[in-house]
Write a structure and sequence with these properties.
- By secondary structure, the chain is α/β, with parallel strands linked by helices.
- The protein is built from 17 helices and 27 strands.
- Helix 2 packs antiparallel against helix 3 and helix 2 crosses helix 4.
- The protein is globular, with a radius of gyration of 23 Å.
- The mean pLDDT is 95.
- The chain binds 5'-O-[(R)-(benzoyloxy)(hydroxy)phosphoryl]adenosine.
- 5'-O-[(R)-(benzoyloxy)(hydroxy)phosphoryl]adenosine (OOB) binds next to helix 8, strand 16, strand 21 and strand 22.
- This is Long-chain-fatty-acid--CoA ligase.
């Protein structure tokens, strides 16, 4: 028997060498399933069980059979409009039922969802559509006060490959998503398990975000591996509190993991306690995932809540460092178990375990999912540091990518010659193998789980006519963990600016709101390093966490 290559040639990213792929298959990690086939199998096994609940504004539910059929009909409609295997489709939907129907339809075709976040605006969406040569873009009509149809019209105008805009809700000049489904004409070709399932976004450290190619096989392992660790089964009722497009609420264990296990996914339109707590009570939610700032808010609100939170068994917290002090307070406040999760869309995910000592759960970020996750902690020269010492985390394994999509130059820096991903995180390993995240070497700001690439924002600020130079750095923040601070040097003779003018300039460039600098300070010069380059570390230590209006 011949084994297929790990990913189809021509799909534009480095992949696992055949010896690794064969090993991961032989070990049973890669199960040879596609997400479309998994949904079909669950629908056959338990057609009438509830798969999905979209509570807002009127409660809508889908059984497994209904979700399966909706995906088939949507896939047939997309196919009838010429969307075929390998095509890229930018999906920018909030936490609504249509999100899951659309992505399962695309999985069935073998077209690749490109997961945009609801917060993304012209700059990001135009880039995703152009870079992936997307043929379609799926949006809500309005969300959080913003008209996505107008954004889509602007994007369509400037993106020659974009043939379709599908709108969940009132379509305006575009096509209503509700009009797409039709009776399946016959079986679709569909993807092979070793082929790409979707493109996920990286947090990014460069001027433009990188795209992360994940296969059905490798991502599938991160799902069922997470399910085993978190105890996800058919009884699980999971609340998707974070944006469904993010890797954490998708796969750790997330909505895709919960559907894999035959459980019920409940979409939460907003993650604040006023929205989420009544849903927990009404839907008897057993599990959810939160970023640290939300976990703090929930911890504050839990004890006085009038809502019955007693169904909640497990809250996963990750995306950014959760302080031990905050972690200690969560379990008593919410009456459930805490699990820390330290993961990345590129692959590696670590969890504390259900049988870990309480102190381990609050002070570490967990152990990798797989015995075959290879972990190296190295110094600046890529030499392994002794156990317990701080170093750069490098990783390679059965669900960690070997390269970004269409990014050969960046890949040469982001991966070692033997295929380890340079995570950019500084960690140490405890004697039990648990990882503790101590900091970060990459030029990225982690704003409560939302990642900001300083270079991207610096490039925009530099476009302001009065700005001579800029450096964007992180400052400590009690709530978000970190906020963004832009140090700005004005041009000689330029009119003085107010901080708000710099913020407005960034916002008007059309980027996600969370990327607008929280603070702006005007300086005459940046601290220099020995070689005359701007010292970001110097700027970070100069920055005091001050308030600004
Ligand atoms: C998750 O994925 P990304 O791709 O948005 O961000 C990954 C980066 C990590 O490299 C690390 O710098 C940071 O986010 N991070 C954490 C952390 N979890 C993620 N830093 C400290 N403590 C943690 N617990 O953020 C993500 C993906 C899957 C599951 C969970 C989070």
């Amino acid at each position: 028997m011949t084994t297929p290559p790990a990913t189809t040639p021509g799909l534009d990213a480095p992949t696992w060498p055949e010896e690794f792929a064969a090993r991961y298959r032989a070990a049973g990690y890669w199960r040879g399933e596609t997400f479309g086939a998994v949904l079909r199998a669950r629908a056959a096994a338990h057609p009438d069980r509830t798969a999905l609940v979209d509570p807002a504004p009127d409660r809508r539910t889908w059984t497994y059979r209904e979700l399966d059929e909706a995906a088939d009909r949507m896939a047939a409609g997309f196919a009838a409009r010429g969307i075929t295997k390998g095509d890229r489709v930018v999906v920018q939907l909030p936490n609504v039922g249509e999100f899951l129907v659309v992505v399962f339809a695309l999985f069935r075709i073998g077209a690749l969802p490109v997961y945009a976040l609801p917060a993304h605006r012209d700059t990001e969406i135009a880039y995703f559509c152009a870079f992936t040569e997307a043929v379609a873009y799926v949006v809500p009509d309005r969300h959080a006060g913003f008209d996505h149809r107008a954004l889509a019209s602007r994007i369509k105008e400037r993106t020659p490959t974009l043939r379709h805009v599908f709108v969940a809700g009132e379509p305006g000049e575009h096509t209503a998503l509700a009009e797409v489904p039709c009776a399946p004409a016959g079986p679709l070709d569909g993807p092979e398990p070793h082929e790409l399932a979707f493109l996920q976004l990286s947090g990014g450290t460069t001027g433009v975000p990188k795209l992360i190619p994940r296969t059905h096989d490798d991502y599938g392992y991160s799902l069922w591996g997470s399910n085993e660790i978190c105890g996800v089964d058919a009884e699980t009722r999971f609340l998707v509190a974070l944006p469904a497009a993010h890797n954490f609420p998708m796969s750790s264990p997330g909505w895709l993991g919960v559907l894999y296990a035959g459980g019920t996914v409940v979409l939460c339109p907003r993650p604040d306690p006023a929205t989420a707590f009544p849903l927990i009570a009404q839907e008897r939610i057993t599990m959810t995932g939160l970023v640290p700032p939300l976990a703090l808010v929930w911890t504050e609100a839990g004890p006085d809540s009038e809502h019955d939170l007693s169904s909640l068994e497990l809250v996963l917290v990750g995306g950014a460092k959760f302080s031990a002090a905050a972690a200690r307070r969560l379990e008593p406040a919410l009456g459930c178990r805490l699990m820390q999760v330290f993961g990345m869309a590129e692959g590696l995910v670590n969890y504390t375990r259900r049988d870990d000592a309480p102190e381990t759960v609050v002070t570490t970020q967990g152990l990798p999912i797989s015995p075959d996750d290879e972990i190296r902690v190295v110094d600046d020269a890529d030499e392994d540091v002794p156990d317990g010492a701080f170093g750069h985390l490098l990783t390679r394994g059965p669900y960690t990518i070997r390269g970004y999509w269409r990014a050969p130059q960046h890949n040469a820096r982001a991966f070692t010659a033997d295929g380890f991903y340079r995570t950019g995180d500084i960690v140490r390993r405890t004697p039990t193998g648990h990882l503790v995240v101590e900091g970060r070497a990459k030029d990225q700001i982690n704003r409560g789980g939302e990642k900001v690439a300083p270079e991207e924002i610096e490039n925009i600020v530099l476009g302001h006519p009065s700005v001579h130079d800029v450096s964007v750095v992180a400052v400590a923040d009690a709530y978000l963990g970190e906020r963004t601070l832009a140090y700005v040097i004005l041009r000689a003779g330029a009119e003085p600016l107010k901080p708000v003018a710099v913020k407005r300039h960034v916002r008007q460039a059309g980027v996600a709101d969370y990327k607008v600098p929280d603070l702006v300070e005007f300086v005459d010069a940046f601290p220099q390093t020995g070689v005359g380059k701007v010292s970001k570390n110097g700027l970070r230590s100069a920055a005091a966490p001050t308030e600004q209006h």
